[in-house]
Amino acid sequence: MASAFEYAPAPESRSVVDIAPSYGLFIDGEFVEAAEGKVFKTVSPSTEEVLSEVAQAGAEDVDRAVRAARKAFEKWSALPGSERAKYLFRIARIVQERSRELAVLETLDNGKPIRETRDADLPLVAAHFFYYAGWADKLDHAGFGADPRPLGVAGQVIPWNFPLLMLAWKIAPALATGNTVVLKPAETTPLSALFFADICRQAGLPKGVVNILPGYGDAGAALTAHPDVNKVAFTGSTAVGKEIARTVAGTSKKLTLELGGKGANIVFDDAPIDQAVEGIVTGIFFNQGQVCCAGSRLLVQESVQDELLDALKRRLSTLRLGDPLDKNTDIGAINSAEQLARITTLAERGEAEGAERWSPACELPSAGYWFAPTLFTNVTQAHTIARDEIFGPVLSVLTFRTPDEAVAKANNTQYGLSAGIWTEKGSRILAVANKLRAGVVWSNTFNKFDPTSPFGGYKESGFGREGGRHGLEAYLDV
Amino acid sequence: MPTSAPTAHALADVTASDGTLRRFLHGLPGVDAVGLEARAASLGTRSIKTTAKAYAIDLAISMVDLTTLEGADTPGKVRALGAKAVHPDPTDRTTPATAAVCVYPDMVATAKEAVAGSGVKVASVATAFPAGRAALDVKLADVRDAVAAGADEIDMVIDRGAFLAGKYLKVYDEIVAVKEACGTAARLKVIFETGELSTYDNIRRASWLGMLAGADFIKTSTGKVAVNATPANTLLMLEAVRDYRAQTGVQVGVKPAGGIRTTKDAIKFLVLVNETAGEDWLDNHWFRFGASSLLNDLLMQRQKLATGRYSGPDYVTVD
């Protein structure tokens, strides 16, 4: 970083959010204790400070919540779409009104920079509720037949990387289509979901329509296995996704899975280099790389390799890592000690297998979970870091000579969630995009999300689509 | 940054003919407008507070080319401007002087006298500013006139008509001729009038063209058209000077001009400099603001930082 122009700290105030010392489960419109009385602590990844103590759901709580959702389903699904829309619009507006509070909360609980929660997560959360509110009274015209019916109770399990955004992706379409919800947030990031429970009450949402059960994997397993759940939606790791698929197999439950990824970001020699560098940075360092659709494999055409890597290294040297509540921070903390250990192990394996490791000069804070932005060059398809999802700020750089080789390498993965193409040539974008086996292909941009655009994977990245008109299908009997 | 990095020698070759120059300029990497503007906007969200803000304000003051380019300019007005450039805030002598005063050629002598001995430079717009629509002889005479009157810096406008018609060599030759007319006495700022070049690709090409022809500074605009300096076009030009130095070792300055009115805006531009070209450009030898109304806002914000209170326009001089 330039020494002449040091930016003084610019921390966002914590006083806008009031975190209670303890929280219960949200069942049938009330905060209640867990049946077994268990609690767990949630910590701030950037400081390891304990933020709150949260009730830990078990099988009995899952059953209670599913029963509440089932009871609520009768009335909720019978409401005219326009009535359901009113609640969703109300939730969207409350999210907007409370967005500062929620952004600070999310940053505290997750470790990601306030710049991202404030400028990306929260606006998208509100946008998803607005978007699906608009669909609620138009389901007859969504292309799924004259009178598509809701499925019933949706059991939803979401990850820790975008806690509130994943909640919005799951809850908004479920409610719009007339389903009721039992949602389990991740054990490391339960707080924003609990604040959302409060928003549901503020919006006057009927009791039992949304139930929130903070807890661990066992609660998630109980939820997905519950016989009275009609629809299971999961976003998370491929391993857990496979487990869920086995559980659900042979039942009448509908299932969507949004799992891991190892996205290829392909830079051709005629790309807008400066913008490609920005796109690579956004692709892999957004949310510390803890993004399932991260562009974690950079495929660069050999002829521009040196130039691009020089530019990329120079750019990485300007990234600011530190206090996520500082408005100038680009790279925040890794979500948990466990995740940090996983990233560290995989990066070490990259070195051991012969790839060349590089990080900018970067001081890591003493407390909390931190990992410097990292670049691996001389990576081949045979390296572990080119195959396994790292879910951290680690970029593997590979090269190619021809478009065919780029496509072959991009598709040579067990995943298929996202890809990026960088070129000034429009015909090449179309030609290459058609050959990529990935759910989302961005051209001359990366990690851009919009509620109108469907999102989902190929192969081990899962199946089903969220977002857009396609996202309705997963919650309708069609 | 062309695909195969040319040496300084190869760069000299690109101006051998209209054809080679065109191939070189059109071989520069394209600019994705959406991505460029997104980057400029994201740097605009940097939050600059307390000591960093105080540093930025003083730096910005020292980078201002205090400008008066009106048909109604009088010697009295130019003298007042000169006095203000030397001591921008008469109530606080710790305030740095501005970089330069910028006037029409006929006012250079007056301006020179007004800032004599202060280190403040006198810049003059020449080459049939702002339209640039005159014969080369006339433009060169304009430049020589200003240099003879003592101008330290010449702000020339390029022939946008020739540029848009693809006559790059004509534009190049003109800049070379003006640079020669400046001699060693004056540094040359080349103004592209980015608002009239209309595409970012053109702005990148113009930047390289100007630098190849020997510009000491590349400057966005005259301040006389609808779209002047923007964070995006300045970011693009900062990338150009950064890449040019990486290839040739020659450092070129950047001057956004027109439309930068507030301290907040100026600080955003300094963030662009800091995070794009780097700290080597954070100096008034390499970065300037062409702005006439910016200075007073900088002074008022400076007073506010010093006293904790916002004073108002009557606590700074009108010009």
TrEMBL record, chain A:
Keywords: Oxidoreductase. PROSITE patterns: ALDEHYDE_DEHYDR_CYS. The keyword Transcription does not apply. Residues 31-477 form the Aldehyde dehydrogenase domain. InterPro entries: Ald_DH/histidinol_DH (IPR016161), Ald_DH_C (IPR016163), Ald_DH_CS_CYS (IPR016160), Ald_DH_N (IPR016162), Aldehyde_DH_dom (IPR015590). The keyword Oxidoreductase applies. One of its GO terms (molecular function) is oxidoreductase activity, acting on the aldehyde or oxo group of donors, NAD or NADP as acceptor. Gene3D superfamilies: Aldehyde Dehydrogenase, Chain A, domain 1, Aldehyde Dehydrogenase, Chain A, domain 2. Belongs to the aldehyde dehydrogenase family. PANTHER family: ALDEHYDE DEHYDROGENASE-RELATED (PTHR11699). This is Aldehyde dehydrogenase. It comes from Streptomyces collinus (strain DSM 40733 / Tue 365).
From TrEMBL, chain B:
The keyword Transcription does not apply. The keyword Transmembrane helix does not apply. GO terms for cellular component: cytoplasm. Keywords: Lyase, Schiff base. Its EC number is 4.1.2.4. Pathway: Carbohydrate degradation; 2-deoxy-D-ribose 1-phosphate degradation; D-glyceraldehyde 3-phosphate and acetaldehyde from 2-deoxy-alpha-D-ribose 1-phosphate: step 2/2. Pfam families: DeoC. InterPro entries: Aldolase_TIM, DeoC, DeoC/FbaB/LacD_aldolase. One of its GO terms (biological process) is deoxyribonucleotide catabolic process. Coiled coil: none annotated. One of its GO terms (molecular function) is deoxyribose-phosphate aldolase activity. PANTHER family: DEOXYRIBOSE-PHOSPHATE ALDOLASE (PTHR10889:SF3). This is Deoxyribose-phosphate aldolase.
